[in-house]
Amino acid sequence: MHDLLMVGWARCIARYGKEPFADALDVTTAAIDKHLKGSMPDFATIIDAASVDDQVLDEIADALGVRIVPKDAVCCVDDLNLLLSRALVKLNEATHPDGPGGREIVHTEYLDGEEVMRALYHRAGEWLERCAQIRKPRSVAA
């Protein structure tokens, strides 16, 4: 863990400078050097480093297979996940054996799910348009 932490610290030192980084952690540059050579900083100092640079713990998080994000962060696909879930619920309700048409979807169930399915259709179109943009050949400067 120490080696991974020091990768982040080295990145901060390169970005901000050793003295400003040490000042932000309220330690001396000699203490920074000591940590870089193998001494493990205390937990409070590690947290202070994370408040200086939100990427300082990236290598540790990566090694653990996790991400550190703000608790109010919203993933760009969260809305799509919710929409897909809503569409799946509508489909399950419409094909439930105890529903109006049994496993057959009747016109009232189609109309009940129309808003969700139209939204899904729209988002699927955006997704496919993004794929087309990614695949589009890029012009090469002459």
Please, could you describe this protein's structure?
The mean pLDDT is 91. The chain is mostly helical. The chain has eight helices and no strands. Helix 1 (2-16) packs across helix 2 (18-25), helix 1 (2-16) packs antiparallel against helix 5 and helix 6 crosses helix 8 (114-135). The two termini are 48 Å apart. The longest helix is centred in the C-terminal third of the chain and has 22 residues, at 114-135. Helices cover 65% and strands 0% of the residues. The chain has helices spanning 2-16, 18-25, 29-36, 43-52, 58-64, 78-94, 107-112, 114-135. The protein is elongated and about 75 Å long.
In a nutshell, what does this entry contain?
The protein has 142 residues and is mostly helical.
Task: Give the helices and strands, then pairings.
Blueprint: H1 2-16, H2 18-25, H3 29-36, H4 43-52, H5 58-64, H6 78-94, H7 107-112, H8 114-135
Helix pairs in contact: 1-2, 1-5, 6-8
Features:
single chain, 142 residues, 8 helices, elongated
Helix content: 55-70%
Tally of DSSP helical segments: 8
Along the chain, the helix and strand elements come as: HHHHHHHH
According to DSSP, the number of beta strands is 0
Largest sheet: none
Which regions have little confidence, pLDDT < 50, spanning 5+ residues? none
**Radius of gyration from the alpha-carbon trace, in angstroms:** 26 Å
Please state the average pLDDT score.
91
